[in-house]
Amino acid sequence: MTPALGSAPAPGPAPGPAPGSAPAFAAARLRVDDLTVGYPTPGGLVRAVDGVSLTVAPGDALVLLGESGSGKSTVARSVLGLPGRTARVTGRIHLDGTDLTALDERALGRVRGRRIGYLPQDPAGALDPLRRIGPQLVEVLLRHRRAANRRAAGPAAAALLARAGLPDPGRIARSRPHELSGGLRQRAALALALCGDPGLLVADEPTTALDALVQAEVLDLLAALRAEQGLALLLVTHDLAVARRVGGTVAVMRAGRIVETGPAGQVLARPAHPFTAALVAARPGAGR
Ligand SMILES: Nc1ncnc2c1ncn2[C@@H]1O[C@H](COP(=O)(O)OP(=O)(O)OP(=O)(O)O)[C@@H](O)[C@H]1O
To answer: Which residue range or ranges hold the ABC transporter domain (predicted)?
Structure first.
């Protein structure tokens, strides 16, 4: 991970220079510059994201860490080109040099799924509950032209399930989502997210619904995909233990801004910003 860029500091005591706040990495897979997202409400414009800049290089991870309502998911949804119909968005989002903010909805649709994979918290949001897993994967593989025909797509789907760490891919392919445990379902959702062979995976609280052991397995799988395939990972979490396990760079968000950014071990062990220190103090042990 390149050092991510921090945004303007939040109100409060000056934290000093944030660890790792170096210039943007030229070869960043994802580069977000001065992103601001507002939503009109009867009471005025709510600024969900306020001047966020960050980079994620191939094989690296950036964890957006913060409490509920700090704007993490809005950053993730904006990268996916889905900030919401009423959103007022300014700033730039570049993926491998392409300015996503300049694309129309049709072109963005091609980027989503193919160049950016999405792993939601709840696999039910990704998987059709009525259909078997295998045909769902086959359909997406064909749509993304990752398989020449249905006959070739079957083995490709099985390979994806294996790549997502699923034992006995044949059985999983024949299963419907409700027949699987939560951990297996999340891995199947990951296989679906990988169908387009994306360079970037956006994962929003991907392990929050899982028990600790399965959570660790899924996070380790994401680490393996980064290491082995150069997948870039943008992961949203409110959980310090998750941020610690993912490693890479942590960007701490508060009230729409990044208040501190740097290597996970450093930020969580020796927070420079009082807000990060308070987060760490509230969860003793999670940062270590
Ligand atoms: N479509 C929308 N319309 C109006 N306000 C929105 C919309 N989406 C998000 N917000 C507001 O933006 C702020 C940030 O929300 P966001 O979901 O990004 O936070 P978060 O850090 O991901 O929190 P959580 O973990 O609870 O989802 C909140 O105040 C939220 O109410």
So the answer is: 30-280
At residue 220, the pLDDT reads 94
Ligand 1 centroid vs 72 CA: distance in angstroms? 8
> In the chain, which stretches have pLDDT less than 50?
1-26, 287
Cα separation, 236 vs 92, whole angstroms: 20
User: What pLDDT was estimated at residue 173?
Assistant: 95
Q: Which amino acid is at 107?
A: A
Sheet with 61-66, edge to edge strand ranges: 116-119, 200-204, 232-237, 61-66, 249-254, 257-263
Residues 97 and 55: their CA atoms lie apart, in Å, by: 12
Choose which residue among 36, 37, 39 to substitute to test ligand 1 binding: the one with the highest number of ligand atoms within 8 A of its C-beta: 39
Helix count and strand count (H, E) for the chain: 10, 10
Residue type for 261, please?
Answer: T
pLDDT at 9: 36
- pLDDT value, residue 288: 55
Measure the CA angle with vertex 141, ends 96 and 149; round to 5°: 130
The whole model's pTM is what? 0.88
Output the pLDDT for position 144: 87
Q: How far apart are CA 34 and CA 50, in angstroms?
A: 8
pLDDT in the model for residue 49: 98
> Ligand 1 centroid vs 256 CA: distance in angstroms?
9
Looking at residue 124, what is its pLDDT? 82
CA distance readout (Å), 74 to 50, 69, 126, 133: 11, 9, 18, 29
Rg from Cα positions in the chain:
19
> Is any ligand 1 atom within 6 A of the Cβ of residue 66?
yes
